[in-house]
Description:
The complex is a heterotrimer. Chain A is an alpha/beta fold. Chain A has 11 helices and 18 strands. Chain A has helices at about 5-15, 40-50, 90-100, 100-105, 125-140, 150-155, 180-195, 240-245, 310-320, 370-385, 395-400; strands at about 30-35, 60, 80, 115-120, 145-150, 170-175, 180, 200, 205-210, 215-220, 225-235, 250-265, 270-275, 280-285, 290-300, 330-340, 345-350, 355-360. In chain A, strands 1, 2, 8, 9, 10, 11, 17 and 18 form an 8-stranded mixed β-sheet that branches. An 8-stranded mixed β-sheet of chain A has the order 5-6-4-13-14-15-12-16. In chain A, α2 runs parallel beside α7 and α3 crosses α10. The N and C termini of chain A lie far apart (about 45 Å). In chain A, about 70% of the residues are buried. Chain B is an alpha+beta fold. In chain B, strands 8, 9, 12, 13, 14, 15 and 28 form a 7-stranded mixed β-sheet that branches. In chain B, strands 42-43-44-41-35-45 form a 6-stranded mixed β-sheet. In chain B, strands 46-49-48-47-50-51 form a 6-stranded antiparallel barrel. By secondary structure, chain C is of the alpha+beta class. Chain C has one domain (about 1-90): Folate-binding fold, CATH 3.30.2270.10. In chain C, β5 (about 65-70) and β6 form a beta hairpin. The N and C termini of chain C lie far apart (about 35 Å). Classes of the chains: A alpha/beta, B alpha+beta, C alpha+beta.
Amino acid sequence: MRYSGFRVIKEALTGHRGWGPAWRDPDPKPEYDYIIIGGGGHGLATAYYLAKEYKQSRIAVLEKGWIGSGNVGRNTTIVRSNYLLDGNEPFYEFSLKLWEGLEQDLNYNAMMSQRGIINLMHSDAQRDAYIRRGNAMILNGADAQLLDQKQVLEKYPFLNVKSARFPVMGGLLQARAGTARHDAVAWGYARAADQRGVDIIQNCEVTGFRIEGSRIRGVETSRGYIGAKKVGACVAGSSSKVMAYAGMHLPIESHVLQAFVTEGLKPVLPGVITYGAGHFYCSQSDKGGLVFGGNIDGYNSYAQRGNLPMVEDVMEEAIAMFPMLGRARLLRSWGGIMDMSMDGTPIIDKTHIDGLYFNGGWCYGGFKATPASGFVYAHLLATDTPHDTATAFRLDRFHTGHMIDEKGMGNQPNLH
Amino acid sequence: MSLQNRLDGGLIDRSETWSFRFDNKYYKGHKGDTLASALLANGVRLMGRSFKYHRPRGPMTTGSEEPNAIVELREGARKEPNTRATTIELYDGLRANSQNRWPSLNFDAMAVNDLLSNFFAAGFYYKTFMWPAAFWEKVYEPIIRRAAGLGSLSLQDDPDGYDKGFLHCDLLIIGGGPAGLAAALTAGESGARVVLCDEDFLVGGRLNLETYEVGGMAGAAWAAETVARLQALPNVRVMPRTTVIGAFDHGIYGAVERVSDHLAVPEDGKPRQILWRITSKRALLCAGAIERPIVFENNDRPGIMQASALRAYANRWATTPAQQVAIFTNNDDGHRTAYDLVAKGVKVVSVIDTRTDAPTSSEYDVIAGGVIDQTWGRLGLSQIEVKMPKGGTRRIKCGALGVSGGWNPNVHLTCHQGGRPTWNNALAAFVPSGTLPPGMTVAGAANGIFSTHGALQSGADGAKAILADLAIKASAPALPEAEDTPVKITPFWHVKTAKRAWVDQQNDVTAKDIKLAHQENYVSVEHLKRYTTLGMATDQGKTSNTAGLAIMAEVAGKAIPEVGTTMFRPPYTPTAMGVYAGRAWGMEMRPTRLTPSHKWAEEQGAVFTEAGLWLRAQWYPKPGETHWRQSCDREVIQTRKSVGICDVTSLGKIDVQGADAAAFLNTVYCNGFAKLPVGKVRYGLMLREDGIVMDDGTAARLAENHFVVTTTTAKAVEVYRHLEFVRQCLCPDKDVHLISTTDAWAQFSVAGPNSRKLLEKIVDDGVNLSNEAFPFMACAEITICGGLRARLFRISFSGELAYEIAVPTRYGDALVRRLMQAGAEFDVVPYGLEALNVMRIEKGHVTGNELNGTTTALNLGMGRMVSKAKDSIGSTLSERPGLNEPDALKLVGLRPVNKDHMVPAGAHLMSKGTKVDAVHGQGYVTSACYSPNLGCHIALGFLKSGDTRIGETIRLVSPLMGVDHEVEVVSPNFFDPEGERLRA
Amino acid sequence: MIINHPLLGPRDSSEFVYLGDARLLNRPDWQADNALEQFIDYGHTRENPAGLHRELWYHEQGDRSWLVVTRNTVTHEITQVELARDVARTGGRSK
């Protein structure tokens, strides 16, 4: 059923009796051409683009819980393409372009809102680095603007510059960046994929692979064996566990990232703003809550919760930027499992098993990548060749020395 | 003073009468009132508006779970949006304003949404606002954002201070009701270290809200007496106004004490709030229970509230929302409310009990088996309609309605570490499960034990079990007598209606929305929550979740526990962001490190800049200089002409000693150190294990077994950590010891052709500084100024004949003054970071801009330094092909073809004649400056195969700044390439 | 979190800096035939278990000991804390 203005009005006047399920709840079939493991944003997007762009069929998404229960449903909703390195920027810019037409493509309002992101800068060296990055963005076809302090203050007049421990020298603005309603992204892809015949199977946990020789044959699940010609894993937070079923050890550590939301407040933040003398990013949702986060806690964790020191650290940075937030109240905090890769960059690649593919290691930057990750993964699954924008996300790059280390932190995952 | 709805008795202090203002009207209240109780006493029921439909709302509760009566407290910079009127302690002169309404609370134009509610069903926004595409940011979203949010921030800096504190205890008791007090008494009198936190300003929990007797006295009196008894114990700390907000790992709890929120302005020197980090061996959760509503049509009008709130207002705060009230219940507790109200002289017009076997009463009318199917009253309840058990309806006039759907144990904190509550059929409620945060147990109503006796007993028993666990002998006091009424409930969740019945009152989620979510297959409990926003209000669903789950269970044809539960997450109640930050804000956000010459530099009028946590002199303006470049150029020219002095203390210093010190350095530096002679310094490059450069610096061999290593300012901490890792983890038996001496030695660079002459004036007799005796890269321990021990290094970052001289930090200030005095004859200048940077760029020396975490020794032109003849950190992985591409980036110098052009750092490099885009990128500029010696801008950068392209003209682009011009590739060593000056 | 330092007793985890998997103690021999392969594995592969994890913590705001902490990554429960130096010695890392 298509959502349309006419339909919305008609249903409003007739008690909403006509709305059907947003997606079906099919039982798993004995075999599929494609099985996507993981009903998060990336997995659902992969299934959608496989069906839509690559005209494939007999596709299933297997989700161990409810769709969108992973990081797509617990992030700070920021969408941007302000990367530095050539291995990254074309991919994220491709993603941003997909975001820009997403609602119409999916016929689902994910509330992608291009209200801009500003990275504040606090030193000459940081300014130099931001200029290099802004130039890289423009040279890759994205947009970037350098703002001085006055221009930042025009947008954020309550920013602390008078008694700032680290002076605010200005910022790097990407005007096309913004936020999207995270759950709606998962639901929109699910509904659109379902309408193209994709079976979305919830409460179906993959417990093993069936591999014959060096070829995948299917997956063992909590709902029985399901055959497949190709299997794509897309299981942020469980990457190490699931790929171990195929005997793989990944260049990944799983960490906890906490995120935060305040009570609803009348809008004060026009866009996304990040603090450069630390790590803090903040925006305000269309419901009025300030949504923000900072660094990962720093230790391996699958607990989906963090501890006080990082909460305090994040708030210190919040108050450093905006002393007027002292009396705003934190409503809720939560934790997600971040699969931190060794260079801070994701992996989208084939594996040593024919027909088994891996997509993961998104650190805490996966949300913005959702459309492109799905698109290029679908490309890889359908064609067995990497998409033009994702040629560098290889699993063997640590062997060859072609790391994509955006922050220059080296092979220590908790620093990315 | 007699107020319309003020009753007799209560725990308010009538000797203190205070005036306060809500919106534009003044009212009177007493000490002990909350804003909600005082407003009710003044006949005010309408205190807020709901989020989506702007429905008129009054208080639903008496506690921190309040979803409806939320206001903006105070005005000006101290304005606090979304403050629960039910928890605001009244003070004289209090000012509060209603929020989320326009133009006024009584007449809110946004209530038009209520009339259009058919269009605003759950998830409506996901289905619309998509046409045309460009309209989202331009039209729809601005409209939505104008309506977004509840209260508004002041937009002014928070004027109040916050603090942090640390507490350690054997037992943390969360909640000071009957269970918590009995536990505190038991543990406290047994000698255990006890912290008792209660979010209320009056400790006692429901003992202060009920009429039950405890030990033959009023419950509130017993609570007061017990609190006094506890406060007399030195090992017990009773903390009222303190909310435990989170249960973290290993027995650590976060708690917020509201030190000053009950005052108009904090007392001088007092913080507004304190964040306590409480490290407990055990915790006992005694957080009580929260009464839940029954859902029915128009169940959200001001005057409709929890039945228990109705009696709490009457018992503790001597007030009632109206003189004629009705009760709607599915359990015996609703009758307790009726009984208490009658005793207070409030007219109970009817008790509507959903159970056909409801108890009867001589005090009030009972409609057994009836339900409420409609209510009236635009700004406050005026009438209800009861669907009678035998058919037909009856309308009853009343100004308040108490609703009791049973009690939910307050399990919030039990869920903070992933535990989920389990369903208890007898109580028709979720109770804490077995998977609690380690060290936590639960007592009293929070554990589903609802009678006063049961709470006291379980609190005492809980404490005894903990004492036994901690091997503390319990000397348990006798428990007082108290009521022990069993729970009698027949679950009843909602009265079916085709119209709207509110489940989550703040977010305007109705039973219809839940049904629609089910119809659209948003059936997982988390989908339900996220699609409808059920439970996402400021109470985190404390007043709405169970009813929502029950309705979902009904439409899905499942049992409630099959539907599942959502998670409660920290904080327990919304918590001011300021208190988490504590004192770390403004200039105090991070510590500031000052160099030993800071005071002297201040006297010179130096301009300072942040270098990490350090403040360093950036330049030293002279009278008449109006631009930093004038000062910088002068400092550079004068240093190169005569002599300059720069405080370089912030560079990291690590003392390395032991028989294996040289071997150790051989491991951590990629170049060799084993054969460095005593009295010599060597430049060293340290790699990360992945083969990328970590840091550079020098190591000076002061004695056979004694080196001094320097690091960059930025990497001092990481390098020291790394060296300790290598020492302890990779070569645990090497005879080597490390100590960071960064702050122990003040170090100054003395650079320029006259530096030797200057130093000769301060070194003690016998110290020979001649080029022969003390050549480039020499080092020595010497004495200066008549016996002061010092370390002297002949190293040069500037490219000049230069030294670095170190003295114990306490002499740093004296040394800079002496150097300046002794240097007067040479016109010595102090130089700051800017001049230092210019001189190092002129020499092609690298800093953090070049050592950016992605560059290799090869990139820096130091590839040959990586010794293949020994094992060192990073040497193996530096051999990977990706780090040794034939066209690898190489450090080069860049000069503009047109001398007037700048060469900005961050610009990208392109070959001439190619397309300007990322694919054709050839490299980038890392550092740039104006060179007063060369008379033009110069820069360092990385260029593909740069070492083979010297002399080539390439294109420099910085589209971000509109720069696009030609530069010439030159050697990075712009100035004195032969190094004659530094060896002079 | 609280880390029970073998020399100093229980300490708040904010005194420490985390590094990661204790396999980082097992630095390969640079002269082994397949040294490059071994170093790539050493530097980049992680077991990353959901359960017991032996990991390196550094007592930066303390005595500067490196510790090997055995911690459950699902519950965060810490069951063992050792001096990394002792573990390294036991693992055969001498001069």
